Each structure stands twice: as C-alpha cells, then as structure tokens.
Amino acid sequence: xxxxxxxxxxxxxxxxxxxxxxxxxxxxxxxxxxxxxxxxxxxxxxxxxxxxxxxxxxxxxxxxxxxxxxxxxxxxxxxxxxxxxxxxxxxxxxxxxxxxxxxxxxxxxxxxxxxxxxxxxxxxxxxxxxxxxxxxxxxxxxxxxxxxxxxxxxxxxxxxxxxxxxxxxxxxxxxxxxxxxxxxxxxxxxxxxxxxxxxxxxxxxxxxxxxxxxxxxxxxxxxxxxxxxxxxxxxxxxxxxxxxxxxxxxxxxxxxxxxxxxxxxxxxxxxxxxxxxxxxxx
Length: 282
Known about the structure:
By secondary structure, the protein is of the alpha+beta class. The protein has one domain: Orthogonal Bundle (Putative xylanase fold), CATH 1.10.3670.10. Strands 1, 2, 3, 4, 5, 6, 7 and 8 form an 8-stranded antiparallel sheet that branches. It is built from 10 helices and 8 strands. The protein starts with a helix and ends with a strand. About 40% of the residues lie in helices and about 20% in strands. Helix 3 (about 50-55) packs across helix 4 and helix 4 packs across helix 5 (about 105-120).
C-alpha cells in the first residue's frame, strides 16, 4: 500500500476489525521500540553488521511463522513482526539495519528497503520477480551493492546449483498452480540460475574456518535436496570466540541463538555446506 493510500483510509479506521487494529498497534509498538533503542544507543554510528545483529537479537523468542508472504495471489511487499521464517527473519533484520544506518525511521522506509532487497532489481512486477531461490537473492543483492560473498576467500569450492524445485512442483505454490505464464517465467529464472557459479564451504571443512566467521555474516546452508540450492539461512553471532547460528527455527518454533555453526551443520543430514555473505555499508 502506498503511503498516500494508507492516509486516505485513516477516516475509516473505526470500521476495521478489532483484530486488524490490534495487529497494527503491535506492529507499531515493535517498530518504535527498535527505532527508539537504536536512537538512544546511537546504532547508526556502528558498522552495519553490528546493527544487523542488534536488530536481529530484538526478535529473540519471536514465533516461527511460515508462508507469511503468500497470503494473497497478487504480489505485494508484506512486512510483519507477527513471526518469521528463516528468510523473513534475516531479511527484515537486514533491512531494518540498513534504514537505521541511513537514519530513516519510518515503517514506510522499512517497506521500501525490503522491496529493494526482496525483488529482482528492487522492483515488484509479479510473483516471479520475488527472489525465491536464495542463490538468486545472493546474486541480485551483490549486483545491487547490498552484500558481498566472502566464501571464496574462506576457501569455498566453486559449484553450480541444478535448481528446478518450483517448476517441478507448481502444485505446492498457489500462485503457480494453473498459471502457465508465471510458471514459464519461473522456469526461465531457474535456467539462468543454473548457468551461474557460486561458492560453498563443504560441511567437513567448516570447523577449520569457523573461527574466521564474523559477527553479522549471513550463513546460507546448502542442501542435498533435489532441485534446491539452500535449505536454511541464519546469522553468525560470535560470542567468546565461537560463531553460533541466530535463526528462526521451525524445530524450536521460534527465533533463537542456537549451537555453534559447525555443530549445527553436523546434526543436519541434508546440509552440504555454507555460503558466507557479509553486509556492505549502505
């Protein structure tokens, strides 16, 4: 919703259902709490990676919430604090950090930033313009100057991903089901991803580089699942010299600071390794 559209609805707010008013109040409370804390503690003077971790830790114990971006068939930039999956957790934390560094402090600024990072080229066209595959998100946000890939310098191996999961399973996506136009767009995007190369530090090597992971690195966990590239995303938080995974966990049904990254990988049978990405100053 554009700002002017929202303002035009203000006279009719009394007609909104109580549950919707309650959600708006909760969203504003959380947003304002983080903004006020950032101002009081001068987060804008910190490196963006530190602001990223600070914001992310404000969401500790928030519930896990899957499918929050797919409530409508029409593609919209949805931003909610009701809960997070692994992607929306790191995404909202990252974008919040970027607006704090830019000293922009409205919810509309956050939505604009999420739009910029979530969609190919920063623009919403339709469902296919969302960066559904993590490999595509990495590629596009490197091009936009949001992040940089550290994996090669950490000794990662050059690989390609044979992605086709979405096009092979359109019945799992209500936007693709019975929509050949969107499905063909997704197929074309998958074909482009398959042409690219990425770097992954294989699971067996992660313990040897774990002490080189930095606070605020984004950890993309590569998977052996057919047709996919990455299966999970978290944030590296270094405490007492140990890099632990801060993430939204479906297993624990909440956002938590989990075990050391190498240990987490070792306990994940389908994980094959990690791609390590760092934020650039906005």
